[in-house]
Write a structure and sequence with these properties.
The chain is an alpha+beta fold. It has a single domain, classed as Outer membrane efflux proteins (OEP) (Up-down Bundle), CATH 1.20.1600.10. The protein is built from 8 helices and 4 strands, in the order αααββαααββαα. Helix 1 runs parallel beside helix 7, helix 4 runs antiparallel to helix 6 and helix 6 packs antiparallel against helix 7.
């Protein structure tokens, strides 16, 4: 019942996102960066070997014997004492046998191992996606700040040049020229600061992708909106990995129950012996069955350990299911809030641009003073800065929503 409630809640959240009006897109640069980052991950190479190991374990469980057969060879003679030609030779094969129910339990465990390896791959991809998304949007934000800082330096430089020209003409005072030069110096200092932050963000991203990144960025491209089918918790890679691990633990408990003792052995052997030189050689055959005693407390300890792990994993799966539902709901609300913030930032930026144009014209005509002109320029810059941040925040919110649903970059 709890699973159904969470699934309904998460499905309704996706319908809320559809109302935001954000367009679906083709593969984004973020998706291409994720593909490059996954190829560099050591886990990507290791998963193939783990899959082959799981396949080999399934072949072991499907074998007719519990372990590979063993060959027994032996010989006995009186060559080093009486030396009368006595000789005895023995050849045998020992076959380890499955205990009742052990073979089917081993097959179930091997299948659970293979499933766990596959699910582990999906979980590792999602973990990498989280790290890449954080580095990607931090990189976008840092370069957005750097671009705006460069534009501010250019605008401050043009204003300083205009004030210097009017100062030489006697229209403005030395104090106005100093104020304009100070505004340019402040803009240059901020540009240097954000440039260092952008370089650091670029390093973190390149550390993941290893690919060359463009220095000039276009508008941040948001990921596609998640589909309603993606809201089911059973599709989340982390939840599926936990379920696979829990199933493996259950299979290990069942195998421990079946392995009540060490594997019995069936031995078939033949013996050739001769009492002395010149006598006839006799050959006999033997069939033997070796039955070990019960494991006793060792088996009890193994069963208890496996059962404890199974119970822990089942509890973790329930907790994760609840957390995924809450995370999806929170991400949906954050995206809706980011959408509203973007609309407000667009309106603020449009008004700030209009005021800047009006005061720029007024200042050129001598109808407003320089401090007012500098204040309006700073307000316009902050408005553009807030607009860029709002756009990136919305795109990042969609990425985080997709992350909470277990979806990889597209």
């Amino acid at each position: 019942m709890r699973f159904v409630i969470n699934a309904i809640r998460r499905t309704s959240l996706v319908l809320v996102l559809a109302a935001l009006g954000l367009p679906a897109q083709a593969e984004t640069p973020l998706a291409r960066a994720f593909a490059a980052a996954w190829e560099r991950q050591p886990a990507a190479a290791g998963l193939g070997e783990r899959s082959r190991a799981a396949a080999a374990q399934q072949q072991v469980a499907n074998a007719w014997t519990a372990a590979p057969p063993s060959l027994e060879l032996g010989t006995r003679s009186d060559r080093f004492n009486r030396n009368r030609g006595a000789l005895e030779q023995e050849l045998g094969v020992a076959l380890p046998l499955w205990l009742p129910g052990e073979r089917s339990a081993s097959q179930a465990l091997a299948a659970a191992d293979a499933e766990a390896v596959e699910r582990r791959g999906g979980s590792l991809r999602l973990q990498l996606a989280q790290a890449l998304r954080e580095a990607w949007w931090a990189w976008q934000a840092a370069h957005n700040e750097s671009s705006l800082a460069g534009e501010r330096v250019a605008a401050a430089s043009r204003l300083r040049d205009d004030v210097a020209r009017r100062f030489r003409a006697g229209d403005l005072s030395r104090a106005d020229l100093n104020a304009a030069a100070g505004a340019l110096a402040q803009a240059e200092a901020q540009a240097a600061e954000v440039s260092a932050a952008a370089a650091q963000a670029t390093f973190r991203l390149r550390n993941l992708t290893g690919a060359g990144l463009p220095e000039v960025l276009a508008a941040a491209a948001a990921e596609p909106l998640p589909a309603a089918a993606a809201a089911a918790a059973e599709q989340h890679p982390q939840w599926r990995e936990l379920q696979a691990r829990a199933q493996r633990a259950d299979a290990e408990v069942e195998l421990a129950r079946q392995q009540t003792r060490a594997n019995p052995e069936l031995a078939v052997s033949t013996r050739r012996d001769r009492g002395a030189a010149g006598e006839a050689v006799d050959q006999t055959w033997a069939l033997a069955l070796r039955l070990p005693f019960g494991a006793g407390p060792r088996q009890d300890a193994r069963i208890a350990t496996a059962r404890a792990e199974a119970l822990e994993l089942q509890g973790e799966a329930l907790r994760l299911q609840e957390q995924l539902g809450y995370a999806g709901e929170l991400a949906a609300r954050q995206v809706a809030a980011a959408r509203q913030q973007l609309a407000a930032a667009e309106q603020r930026a449009a008004l700030a641009r209009e005021n800047r144009d009006l005061y720029d014209k007024s200042f050129r005509l001598g109808e407003s003073d320089l401090p007012t002109r500098l204040r309006i320029e700073a307000e316009a810059f902050e408005a553009e800065r807030a607009l860029g941040r709002a756009r990136i925040a919305l795109a990042q919110g969609i990425s985080q929503w997709r992350q909470s649903l277990g979806l990889l970059p597209e």
